[in-house]
Amino acid sequence: HPLAVAFGSVISLFRNAGMRLEGLCAVASFLLLAWGIYRLTRTAFTPIVAAVAVALLLTSFNFMFLAARGFVDLTYCAAIVWAAALEIERPRRGTAVFVVLLAAELIRPDAWLLAGLYWLWCAPHASWSARIRWAAIVVSAPLIWVALDWIVSGRALVSLHHTQDTAVALGRTVPLAQLPK
Q: What is the pTM of this model?
């Protein structure tokens, strides 16, 4: 997770205060998520619906508990919600959405698929130069992951293999047919 590695590297410079700074960043991510949900739902629906959506987020003890335990990546969620909010405000916006999706791609590889699908959505309506620029943004994240894995471990696909091995060891492999469940 390149963005997590970069974040951890910066936080480690603050020694003991780093844990407090990390907590503040988690709160900031949560607030960004709430703001993004408000902006997305306000544009898609109404300000009242947006206020209800944010109230549901703020009062969801389970969500906050899971986020505090590390089962929900608040920064990733905020990036995806903001990408959606920017897109719904101006369909096929392009670069701004791709940059936010790039941040999400550097947090979790699931966003690679979202960025690719967004490129397919935008490309037919864009110039060739925009298509190429956006494609470069979309493919840069997987290349950064591979480069970081190689630099850190000497194995270009260590993140992929480690995740697969861990899922098998924990008995968390799910056949594709059971994925929706």
A: 0.86
User: The tokens 């190689």 sit on which residue?
Assistant: 150
Please state, rounded to an integer, the average pLDDT across all residues of the chain.
Answer: 90
Neighbours of 128 (CB within 10 A): 8
Long-range residue pairs from 115-120, CB within 8 A, at least 24 positions apart, any chain: 115/141, 118/83, 118/87
Is the distance from CB of 125 to CB of 20 less than 8 angstroms? no
- 134 Cβ partners below 8 Å, 6+ apart? 94, 95, 98, 119, 122, 123, 126
Count the Cβ atoms, other than its own, within 10 Å of residue 26. Answer: 15
The 8-class DSSP code of residue 123 comes to: G
pLDDT, residue 179, reads: 65
